[in-house]
Amino acid sequence: MDISIALSDNHYTRAITQGRVHPQGARFLPTTVHPSEMFWRQLKYGDFDVSEMSLSSLLIAASKGDHRFVALPIYTSRTFFHTWILIRNDKGILTPADLKGKRVGVPEYQQTAALWSRGILQHEFGVLPKEMTWFMERSPEKSHGGSTGFEPPAGVVLNKIDPKTNIGEMLVSGELDATLLYLNSKNLVDRSQIDVLGHPNIEPLFKDPFVETRRFFQKTGLFPINHTVVMKRELYEKHPWLALNIYHAFVEAKRQADTDASEAIQSMMETGALQLGQGFEAQAWQEQAKKYGMKNSRPVLETIAAYIHEQGLSASPIKIEDVFAASTMDL
């Protein structure tokens, strides 16, 4: 059985995209796609049998009755997204609390990285989404929210960025004070292209992201999940055995990647190429946060589901059991 699958160019999926790992009883036909474009294509057109998927868009879609996809507890992208926030250093932003009242860009309001950052800004630093003015780059036609019925939450001021410009240009010109996420890799969805970190007035909000990474992880035990893996429900219902076989294929691809990464991390730490803070993140990534399976990830999944409802992007709380394959709930 041939199965079309779309994945980003990711260390943990490379054994699959390179054709070295397949699920028992099936063969993957892989396509490598930038995540922004992949999620748009999958949500709007259903291009692939199996794909990576934005966790927030998946949960939001399910909360609105869209159950075209069944999720598997495989997490191909995880990081501490709030440490990616960029600011203009001439706008009086010295701490996260200084984002109140500021003009903040975001490629897409509902995307997972933005969702995590807003939730952490609220719960860790007391900054509510409604206390910032938002500017969104993606158009309804090219956004993930265009397929999930996105509407700005009550109390949130959200402006659409003119198609003739983008987040990068607005940061450089001073029309934006900050952005939660900056994407300038070429794809069909995102428009920004400038290397903004080369600009003297643009820098990370957290000057030492590894210090903040360590603080947040040690306090909460949460390593945010960005992408999961989904299969079309019709495929799952026709061949329910595929869910666990696909899961095991990803576990094997991860095992191969972990072996390579552990050796590389050890070598870099021994030579001093990897510093203490970076070593902490790498160790957390390897030893705890990148584990697949529902039991290891449930607190993180329940946190993002709660953030979605809290931020007004779902009418009611989302149950994880309504989104993930039943056969994977005890993994």
Structural features, described:
39% of the residues lie in helices and 17% in strands. With 331 residues, it is α/β, with parallel strands linked by helices. It has a 6-stranded mixed β-sheet with strand order 8-7-6-9-5-10, with helices on one face. A 5-stranded mixed β-sheet has the order 2-1-3-11-4. The protein has 11 helices and 11 strands. Strand 6, helix 4 and strand 7 form a beta-alpha-beta unit. It starts with a strand and ends in a 21-residue tail after the last helix. The radius of gyration is 20 Å and the shape is globular. The chain folds into 2 domains: 2-79 and 224-328, Periplasmic binding protein-like II (D-Maltodextrin-Binding Protein, domain 2, 3-Layer(aba) Sandwich); 81-218, Periplasmic binding protein-like II (D-Maltodextrin-Binding Protein, domain 2). Helix 9 packs antiparallel against helix 10.
Shape: globular
Task: Report the CATH C-level class of the largest domain.
Answer: Alpha Beta
Question: What is the succession of H and E elements?
Answer: EHEHEHEEEHEHEHEEHEHHHH
Kindly state the number of beta strands: 11
- Biggest sheet: strands, sense, closure? 6 strands, mixed
CATH architecture of the largest domain: 3-Layer(aba) Sandwich
* Rounded radius of gyration (Å): 20 Å
User: What's the rounded overall pLDDT mean?
Assistant: 91
Domains counted in the coordinates: how many? 2
Q: How many angstroms does the end-to-end distance come to?
A: 25 Å
Work out the helicity level.
Answer: 25-40%
Instruction: Report the total helices.
Output: 11
Oligomerization state: single chain
Q: pLDDT under 50 segments (min length 5)? A: none
